[in-house]
Write a structure and sequence with these properties.
The structure is a single chain. By secondary structure, the protein is of the alpha+beta class. The protein has one domain: Beta-grasp domain (Ubiquitin-like (UB roll)). 26% of the residues lie in helices and 28% in strands. The chain is built from three helices and five strands. A five-stranded mixed sheet has the order 2-1-5-3-4. The N and C termini lie far apart (31 Å).
Length: 94
């Protein structure tokens, strides 16, 4: 699956992605968990440190939105089904 990932206000990810806020990512699977696993395989464990909390969820301090309209609630994010061509936003809150 291929999606577009946009990151705003998450400095560690900006550095990991080679000072880019936008990347296209191809990964096996179709959930947000699959996307994150693909990011970790491609960019290393720095991804985990940058976005995960102690429960291996995307930290509640980060906002995750799919296609500018679907805000994903904490605790339900990782199972979210994604579609080919979706744009996923990960943004710092505050």
């Amino acid at each position: 699956m291929n999606v577009h990932l946009t990151v705003k206000g998450v400095a560690p990810l900006y550095k990991i992605f080679g000072k880019k806020n936008d990347i296209d990512m191809t990964f096996p699977g179709n959930t947000l968990q699959d996307l994150v696993d693909g990011l970790i395989r491609k960019y290393g464990n720095g991804i985990k440190k940058a976005i995960f909390d102690a429960q291996d969820e995307i930290d509640m301090e980060l906002r995750v939105v799919v296609n500018q309209t679907d805000y994903l609630s904490y605790g339900e994010r990782m199972d979210r089904l994604l579609n080919e061509g979706d744009t996923i936003y990960i943004m710092g809150v505050g």
